[in-house]
Structures are given as structure tokens and as C-alpha cells.
Amino acid sequence: MSSFNIKNDLTWRDFLIRLGLIIITVAIIVWMMPRSSQNNFKIEKGRPWIYNDLKAPFDFPIYKSDEAVKAERDSLMKQYEPYYILNSDVVGKQLRQFSKDYSNGIPGLNNDYLSIISNRIRRLYDQGIMSNSDYAKIGKDTTKYLRIVNGKHATSIQVSKVYSVVSAYEQIFEDEVLAAHRDILQKCNLNDYITPNLKYDKERSEASLNDLQNSIPLASGLVQRGEKIIDRGDIVDGKTYNKLLSFQKEMERQNVDQEKIRLNIMGQILYTAILLTCFTIFLTLFRKDYFEKVRSTAMIYALIVLFTIIASMMVVHNVLHVYIVPFAMVPIFIRVFMDSRTAFMAHATMILTCACFLQYPLEFVAVELVAGLVAIFSLRELSSRSQLFWTAVSVTLAAILTNLALDWIRINDLAKISYSEYNYLVINGVLLFCSYPLLYVIEKAFGFTSNITLIELSDMNKELLRKMSEVAPGTFQHSIQVGNLAAEIANKIGAKSQLVRTGALYHDIGKIANPIYFTENQSGVNPHEKMENIDSAQMIISHVTEGTKLAEKYNLPNEIKDFITTHHGQGKTKYFYVQYKNAHPDEDVDDLLFTYPGPNPFTKEQAILMMADTVEAASRSLPDYTEKSIRELVERLIDGQVADGFFRDCPITFRDIAYAKTVLIEKLKTIYHTRLSYPELKK
């Protein structure tokens, strides 16, 4: 037993195989992962939201619509005052030129009009005159005021009080004094003396305009991380529409460039590789035997990859909600076919991998880890369909309560909690009911055998068992008795009781071919009395090979076939072997003629069956059934098996063997207890 088949050192071949497994798994998962967290939504106001429930993955402002911003800008433009620089030298220059040109007076008018005209021109320049183009431009705007810069001072005046060159010229003729002499004045070309004295100050004006526009807030509010934006099925109203547009705009603003995409992929590769490497190291350290079974390794990694890809596809294509995916199926399947620790580690690896591309990773990890733990706890040993039902119910309740607790912690407001997530968790629970039919698929795909299958195989109405009960009733009763003994031992030492019970029912099915050659089926006639010892030994040994053929014919699982080939191991048919040796003392005996093909037991359950089978069969030959005789029989037979090395290749301990002896002794004492003789009535 000390040489149980576990290598202490990891060979280069083992290392390369596991490294290749990690690389392939990481490559497949990362290939299917979303490259960014950007969502492609089609936002339609007044229409129901057809996508997943949406919560803010980060803080972002609620941007105002373009129309609202334009309206605010138009409103502020009324307050906008463009800057114009006043050129004070223009008025003096033009008036001097006018006085020079008309030093002799204006024909048709007395000299007093020179002073009046000069006064009117000066008054126009004092108000301000700009070019016709500038005046036309400012007239198109909503600007009502402008600032005139004169030296270090800027004065705000109404636009209506400023003139263009044309309007200034017209203003001269609208004067009540000069209007009567319009015909004469038109000949004077007074427009020659009217030029712009206001020049547009582009730098100051644009700076003022920018300051004004920058004072307009582009956002009307803030959405905080974790806050509900919209639930699936809700109508997109105006307020929500702005939130969705703002979210999309912010996502576009934060959209990664090619360099960041490369970094994103590298990060995904590194993250996934770390998780899968840790998981592979766990299996190497604690469950190295799984790597010796391709089906075990294939199932574990296939389940991790499959469910991760499903979650990735849902995120990439924005389909439903990731909470719908029944991740708890993974620990359920692994727990049923393997063990709890491996189930939890595989589940944790898968959940942490999925978390890296989700909007709310912490909440997801918390909910799914709790769900996985509950699934593992509730399936200590699957023996009925009802267990899966209650497992699904338990997982659903645990997930709902965990999510509710997180909502209370995070939101602190019952009105803001999105209860649609709980609908998805309920759907998740319903999908978990599919675990039962999928167990059959997993069994066939990877060659496993569940307890449910074992229970089905234990049905006495199964064709093969019914045939054995009819053809070889003694063997049938022996098998039932061995199954009961073996199951008791298995329960005592922590082995798989249902597996060993089912294996016991089928371990001797090969006797169906020639039942009369086995003592339990004989009724006074023993055909071995007329046979040679070698022939008799070969006939007895043949029940192993015949049993294997029947197992193949009836498609029995490999685990059951192994009980058929190992229940005698590589032992000998000692009765005929000893007889032959005694009859031929001087002859070299070919031990192979009397030896079962084996192999020896390589699992704890197979070792249990060997002990129970040998003891139960031998117990029938006891002359009397006392505690001493039973104890001596059990001790002698099992110690002989240990001494012959039958248990060297299986993980059974001396402590387990001691417990097995105790169980066998107590059970045989109960089976073969002495009954009291009933007295006869005296007449």
C-alpha cells in the first residue's frame, strides 16, 4: 500500500502537457472575451428598453442636449458685448479736410451751415461709426450692446446708437435743420468725410465670447457609479434618454485606441493565465490523479471554458443578463463526479475569469461564489432527483439574499433598488433544473458514472440482474449480501457506498454462463468431481472474462467493469491449486493456469469489494458460527490478502482495513446469529 500510484516528482512531459493545457485554455477564453466595455445601444425615445438592466459602471455627467445647449447659448448671446476700438484721430482729420475743402463756403448756403454740418459730423463720430460690413454682421446677431474701448476705458452702449457709414450719412439729411437743403448737400459728397472710427477688436471679443460660452454648464446632473440608469422593459422617457446619450457619449470619450486595446488584451491574457495556472497547480499538488485520467481533465477545463464563453458572448452581443447563466452547474457536475475541493476551485477560477469583463465584478463574484458554495454543500452525495431540485432552490435563495444584501449596503434606498436582477436569478434557478438531464450528457461525453446511474443499475428489474436471479440464484443472493457488507464498510471509512454496492451486484455476472460450476448454485451435483483440477480452475477463472463480455454487451460503465476484473485481483483459485500441488508434488506447476487475470484493486472501493466477497463466500463453509470462528476467519483472510500484496496499488490504509474487519465481524455475527429452539406443546 505504500507504493500507491502517485509520483513524487513532476516530469518534463507532465510539465509540458499542463503548460500546453493552460496555454490552449487561456487562448480560447481570451479570444472570446470582449475587447472593451463599450456597449452599442440603439436608443429610441418613447420605446421600451430591450437590453439588459443598466447600472452606471462609473461616475459620469448627464450632458444637456444640443438643442438645450444652443438655446442657452442663444440666450447668453443677448448678453454678449463685442469689443470695438475707438479711433479718436479720425474725427479731427475728417473735419479738417471738410473745412479745407469748403473754406469758401457751400454754394447756395450761408457760411453758418459749415459750422452746423461740422457739428453734426462730430456728433456722429462721438456716437461711433463702423464699417457697413461690421454693422451688417452685428445686426444679424442677437447682440444688443457693444463695448467701445477708448484708451484704458471701455464703455457699453446700445448697438442701435451706433452708425454704419451709410446710416451716418443718412442721419445728416434727417437733421431737421439740414433736411430742407438736401438737394444742395447731396452735391457736397459729405460721405467722403464719414469713415469708420470703430474697429472690431477680435482678440478681446473672442476672449469675451469664450468666457461667456464656457460659463454654460454642459451637464445638468451627475450619475454615480452603481446608480440605476434603466431596467429592461422600461420606457425611455426624456430624462432617461439624456442619461443614456450621456452614458454613450462618455463611453465613446473613454474609448480605447489601438495601443490601449493591445494593453487590454495583454491584461486579459495575464489575468486569465494567472488564474488557470493557480488552478492547475492546485490539481497538481492535491489531485494529481485527475491528470492521469484524460476524461477528468477534459471535463473540468471544458466546463470552465464553456461557461466563460457563454458569459463573454452575452456581454459582447448584449443579450439578456449574465445572472441568467447557471454557473452553479459547474460545481454541481464536478462535485457529483469528483470532489468538493476541486468543484469549488474550478468554480472560483471560472467566476473570477468572467468578472474581468463585467460591469459589476465584485457583486457578480460575491453572488456566484455563494451560489457555488451552496450547490457544493447541498450535494454531498447525489442519490435522487429531489436532491437536484432542492439544490436549485437553495442556490436561488442564496443568490437572491446575497444580491439583496449587497443592494442594501450599496444603495441604502429601497426605491432605487433594481428588482429585475432578481427575476434573472429566478430564471437561473429554473435553468439549474436542467442539471439532471445534462448529467446524462456529461456521463456519456466524458465517461463518468453518477450515483443516479448507479441506483438505476441497482434496480433488480434490470435485464442482466433479473437473468442472474433466474439462472444463478445462489450467485444473486451472494452478490446482494456482498453488496450490503461492502456498503457498510464504505460508509464506515468514507468511500463511495453506492458505487461499491452496485459493483457488488455485477461482480459475478460472469457466472451466468456456467452457473452449475459454482457451489452456491449447486443442488447436490458437483461437476468438478469429474474434471481435472486445471480444467476446474480455468472454468472458475472464466467467470471474470465472461463477466467482462456481458458488461460490454450490456454497456455497463467502466467503473462497474473494473469491479468484475479486480474482485479476485491476480489471486489464485486456491482450492484447485492446492489439490493439484498435492497430487503432483514433484511437478513444477504453471501458476498462471490457476491465476486470475486481474488486475489487483486500484481504488478503495475495489479493495472493499474484494474483502467483502472473499469473507462472505468463505463464511458459508464455517462449521459453526461463533464470534471466535468468525473473527479468526475474517482476520486470516484479510491478513492473507494484505500479505499477498493485493492492496499495494490502491489508496486504502491499515486503519481502513481494521475498520473493514470490525464491520465484517459484526455483520457476520448478526447474519449468522443462533436462533432459539421453539418448545413443543405437551399434550
Describe this entry's structure for a reader.
The two termini are 65 Å apart. Helix content is 58%, strand content 5%. The chain has helices spanning 12-32, 66-77, 89-101, 112-127, 132-140, 165-173, 182-186, 202-214, 238-253, 258-286, 294-316, 329-337, 340-355, 361-377, 385-411, 420-432, 435-446, 451-457, 463-471, 473-493, 497-506, 533-553, 558-566, 574-583, 604-619, 627-643, 654-671; strands at residues 54-55, 60-63, 83-86, 129-130, 145-150, 153-158, 163-164, 198-200, 219-223, 228-230. The chain folds into three domains: 72-214, no CATH class; 258-446, no CATH class; 451-671, Hypothetical protein af1432 (Orthogonal Bundle), CATH 1.10.3210. It has a four-stranded mixed β-sheet with strand order 6-5-3-8. Strands 1-10 form a two-stranded antiparallel ribbon. The protein has a two-stranded antiparallel ribbon with strand order 2-9. Mean pLDDT is 84; it is low at 1-7. It is rod-shaped, with a radius of gyration of 49 Å. The chain is mostly helical.
What is shown here, in short?
This protein is mostly helical and 683 residues long. 58% of the residues lie in helices and 5% in strands.
Strand content: 5-15%
Q: Tally of extended strands?
A: 10
Distance between the termini: 65 Å
Structural class: mainly alpha
Number of helices: 27
Helical content, roughly? 55-70%
Task: Give Rg in angstroms.
Answer: 49 Å
Number of domains: 3
Write the layout of secondary structure elements.
Blueprint: H1 12-32, E1 54-55, E2 60-63, H2 66-77, E3 83-86, H3 89-101, H4 112-127, E4 129-130, H5 132-140, E5 145-150, E6 153-158, E7 163-164, H6 165-173, H7 182-186, E8 198-200, H8 202-214, E9 219-223, E10 228-230, H9 238-253, H10 258-286, H11 294-316, H12 329-337, H13 340-355, H14 361-377, H15 385-411, H16 420-432, H17 435-446, H18 451-457, H19 463-471, H20 473-493, H21 497-506, H22 533-553, H23 558-566, H24 574-583, H25 604-619, H26 627-643, H27 654-671
Parallel strand pairs: 3-5, 4-7
Antiparallel strand pairs: 1-10, 2-9, 3-8, 5-6
